[in-house]
Write a structure and sequence with these properties.
CATH superfamily: NAD(P)-binding Rossmann-like Domain
Radius of gyration: 18 Å
Number of domains: 1
Largest sheet: 7 strands, parallel
Strand content: 15-25%
Distance between the termini: 62 Å
Shape: globular
CATH class: Alpha Beta
Number of helices: 7
Strand order of the largest sheet: 3-2-1-4-5-6-7
Structural class: alpha/beta
Number of strands: 7
Amino acid sequence: MAVAVVTGSDSGIGRAAAVALAGDGFDVGVTWHSDQDGAHGTAREIAELGRRAEVRQLDLTSLPGAADRIDELCEALGGIDVLVNNAGAGASSPFVDAEWDAWRSVLDVDLNGAFLCGQRAARRMIAQGRGGRIVNVTSVHEHVPLRGSAAYCAAKGGLGMLTKVMALELAEHGITVNSVAPGEIATPMTGNEDVDPGRIERPLIPAHRPGDAREIAAVISFLASPGASYVTGTSVVADGGLLLMAAIANQDANSEN
């Protein structure tokens, strides 16, 4: 029996990842922050695939106690083989205007919460003695800055480096740790839920559209699979070529000189 826990799996990338992992044969722990109905909808999809789901509320602004939910899910499902740290939050304001409470909240959800959940999962994986997979969902802003998003970029950049440290320390236990860095994905967080990404025009993205949550779930599914056993400490960027636009901007700037 294989068990995965996916945080923030009530909608978007988390929901798609939970369903994809169920399709791969995992029983899945589902967590939600504010959308309980969405979480139970994810659980129904998992059940339709013949796998078991357990649902818990996870509020990563209430640390460190919130990480207890990981242990609860592991106990309920009989262990853990995969953790997907997907729960995330953002805040938008110029750096000089950023409020301390907003900064701290984003860092708690996106970085501190992932640290604590990853620690709980890793301890159990080590005790089980059969290895495991941890996948941290970051963002292209793990790699490049975004105006007005100091807290979000700091948290995602920090999670990217934490991923590398975790990978370095946990490799001896047969545990791989990687990050997935999505670009714009059609999810509630980007205001594009329940739309066909192919119908949204994005001229500044080489793929000319946002991504589908299931496309990110496919990357997560691979990193959780036996086929990815030699992949650790890396960041897989899935952004439709968005990061490549720096090269185009540089080319355009040079052509104007």
